[in-house]
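Posting here for the record, re: pyridoxal-5'-phosphate.
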Amino acid sequence: MYRQVYRRLRAAILGGALPHGTRLPSTRQLAAELDLSRNTVEVAFEQLRAEGFIERRIGAGSFVAMSRTNRPVAPAGRTRSARASESASLLSARGRLVAEAGTRAGQAASRTFAPCVPGLQDFPVALWNRVLAKRARLGGGALLETGDPAGYRPLREATAAYLGAVRGVQCDWRQVLIVGSTQQALDLVARLVLDPGDEAWIEEPGYLGARAALAAAGARLVPVPVDADGIVVEQGVALAPRARLAYVTPSHQYPLGVTTTLARRVALLAWAERAAAWIVEDDYDSEFRYAGRPLAAVQGLDRSGRVLYTGTFNKVMFPSLHVAYLVVPPGLAERVVAARAVTDGPVATLAQAALADFIGDGHFAAHIRQMRRLYEERRDVLRHELAQRLGTLLTVAHAEAGLHLAALLPRGVDDRPLSTAAAAAGLDVPPLSRYYLGRPSRRGLVLNFAGTARAEIIAGVRTLARVASKMDR
Ligand SMILES: Cc1ncc(COP(=O)(O)O)c(C=O)c1O
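Prediction output follows.
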């Protein structure tokens, strides 16, 4: 009750309804009026006095002490949007750059074909919970400590061993830094190696998250075309020979799905060495290849320490795990770890430790094998259904790997109206043109099959065919 009295009087003083010098009723009067005990009102008055809102003079009474000049003034008469644009101008130039670069909306995993979402329905939740519970029991108090900003050592070791065996990455565990996401790795790298105005190659079309991280660091983005062999290195060299960085997805180009050939990888490395530039290799879904042998990572071919390699557990496991990695050349590790300590603390130790156990006990490899079979089947269903129902409109070019495929429209057909109409029908199929910084040379739709069950894929393609046929008319 005393809080209520206090709050009402305080609001009246702050709002100006009780101006400076106003004499308040006595505690006895107010208590009688409000049907409260005098003591309750007394406590409220004392609180107001202690905070400087009122003055109490013995024999004279209580007066409002806060005046017009020392009252915080509310910005009167301005609209919410005026205040919002005003607060944008309160940001620094760098702050505005960062805020404007952030384009990633939250992912709605529930929509059919939603991008970047793995098959969460098939994740072995019970098994993971057992591994997690066991680690929590065995780990004891050490799991509650802050931990090493570079990451939990057994996970760094397990990651180094896994990447060496499966991806041909050459590294010592000390070069492996555990981060929360690829996005965090990209942000860290961009801030560490780029100055505002530096040129950075990005794949055209390419991954929006990488584009955002580089733009936020003030980079001048140089879109370099991607053809059937991957990023066209000679075009990059022609456009920006002295770029400081090249962001690439060589094992499975995002979003086209092309695998960069060995010749292109060698050419990219040769340029980076000549230009003393960095290659940021994003190996985001390399675990899932359905045909042919995977090419080893560019990092493994690097002899001059120009590659910063990143990958994520958030696709193979589940997105809210929030564990990914960045592999840096030996000479850089310490400084990257120090920089990471500035921007963020370590990823939750329990998650890292449980993941290290999950890998060490062989569950990780088994899970990948199982999901690869499942995703391959889903990919087959999607490809088959698209050919059956939309074969004259959409062409699937590359679908040998990954969680999604790009289906191309005939030249001259706009992909945006189709994507918008599909969204209205519950399908999340972004237009390929969205991934271009410049003029799109190809148009189509990006369809994620990994997170979409077989029956939903079949129904989804039917819906898409219906939507497309309505647009023809
Ligand atoms: C090319 C590429 N890199 C990285 C990611 C995301 O990884 P993370 O969730 O670890 O940031 C995605 C998709 O979500 C992606 O398509």
